[in-house]
Amino acid sequence: MTFFCLAGLASFFSGCHLTPKTTYSTDLPSQHSVNSKHFIIHSNVKLDSDNVLVQELQELRERLFATLRLPEQRDPVSVYLFSDEASYRYYMNTTWQNLPPRRAYFVGTTRELAVYSFLSSKVQEDLRHEFTHGLLHGSLKTVPLWLDEGLAEYFEVDPHIPDAVHAEHVLEWETAKQDNWSPNLFRLEMLTDFRDMTQRDYAEAWGWVHFMLQTSDQTAEVLLKYLAGLETTKTPPRLLTSLETASPNYFNDVQSHVVKMRSLQP
Coil, strand, or helix at residue 32? Predict the structure, then answer.
């Protein structure tokens, strides 16, 4: 074992810890755990209950459930936090061979709702995104792919930055419009495999979610009622139909909304 401080992650820990060297193993982190009613974090680095990562997941859950009016969570989410990227990559490549390489993943099975990630400078953002997936699938019977990703992109933004939006996605919308692209919720709702989603699709999914939650009570209610319907059905209808009724000018409104978000950014 090697004794060292994790560079760049000092705010996550109260001091240095004995941390194992990189190991190439299919074993999950298991030396330490932090338990709550709704999630458990497994790691090989000790995290206290007042650690910023633990507190942020708890705050995210409270914010997400309050914002989306979700039903009580049926299943807890297991978070597996690897100490280093190499160990994480080895485990994921060995265990989930069909997944493209990413810094973090949510994998839901009949056995477990699991989030996999590793300690990095992006760990908070990554956990906010994947933990959102876990909470949604722990509360609803199903979540359409575009909405699953759109909500995860919405809640991955740092909540401690006032009026912050997903700057990368706002820029992607701007770039896309220069390519004569237009948002198309009908097409987005037809996507069923996340491996088919492009960066532009993620940006569009975020844009629709942000537009509905932030524009008016009418558009927010469309999304909230739709989510309520996902509590009991595995074959949801298209959301677009309800949005057209509540906001007939939705096509122009969503584009104006994202342009406005761009103008508000530093």
Answer: strand
The secondary structure element, H or E, covering residue 106 is strand 105-108
Contact 45, 73 (CB under 8 A): no
Q: How many angstroms separate the CA atoms of 191 and 143, rounded?
A: 12
Dihedral pair phi/psi, residue 67, rounded to 5°: -70, -45
CA atoms within 13 A on the CB side of 244: 7
Sequence-distant (6+) residues with CB within 8 A of 102 are none
Residue type, 129: H
Euclidean distance between CA atoms 2 and 21, whole angstroms: 6
Residue-level pLDDT at 10: 38
Domain boundaries, the chain: 2-12+25-139, 147-264
Please write the tens of the pLDDT for every residue from 236-261.
Answer: 899 999 999 999 999 999 999 999 98
Of 160, 95, 171, 92, the C-alpha closest to 125 is: 160
- Residues 33-37 have a mean pLDDT of 94
Distance separating alpha carbons of residues 64 and 70, to the nearest angstrom:
8
**Class of domain 2-12+25-139 as given by CATH:** alpha beta
CB of 41 closer than 8 Å to CB of 34: yes
pLDDT surpassing 50 at residue 7: no
Question: Are 145 and 132 in contact, with CB atoms under 8 Å apart?
Answer: no
Closest alpha carbon to 77 in 151, 131, 125: 131
